[in-house]
Design brief:
Blueprint: H1 2-39, H2 47-60, H3 67-90
Helix pairs in contact: 1-3, 2-3
């Protein structure tokens, strides 16, 4: 039983590293999109785009994660990236 558990935990650890890598990749792309929006004079928040993302996420979910839990994770991800975009947009604060 311990060997099975160790193997599962090892696979979970490897997957967690991949998830972190993918989340950071997603954040970098979001920041790049934020820069493109700023350069074109568009606001950081794009409610229609966020709605489209959430619909696609919901449609891609085949479980076992409950829909509301997965969408909550994505809402948090989107809000975090928007905060990073705002920080990047405002630039460094003078000392």
């Amino acid at each position: 039983m311990t060997d099975d558990l160790d193997a599962l935990r090892s696979e979970i650890d490897a997957l967690d590293r991949q998830i972190v890598e993918l989340l950071n990749r997603r954040a970098r792309l979001g920041l790049a999109a934020g820069r493109a929006k700023t350069e074109s004079g568009r606001p950081i928040t794009d409610t229609e785009r966020e709605r489209e993302v959430m619909i696609r996420i919901a449609m891609a979910n085949n479980g076992p994660l409950p829909q509301d839990a997965l969408l909550a994770l994505y809402r948090q991800l989107i809000e975090t990236i928007k905060r990073l975009e705002e920080i990047e947009k405002s630039g460094p604060k003078p000392a």
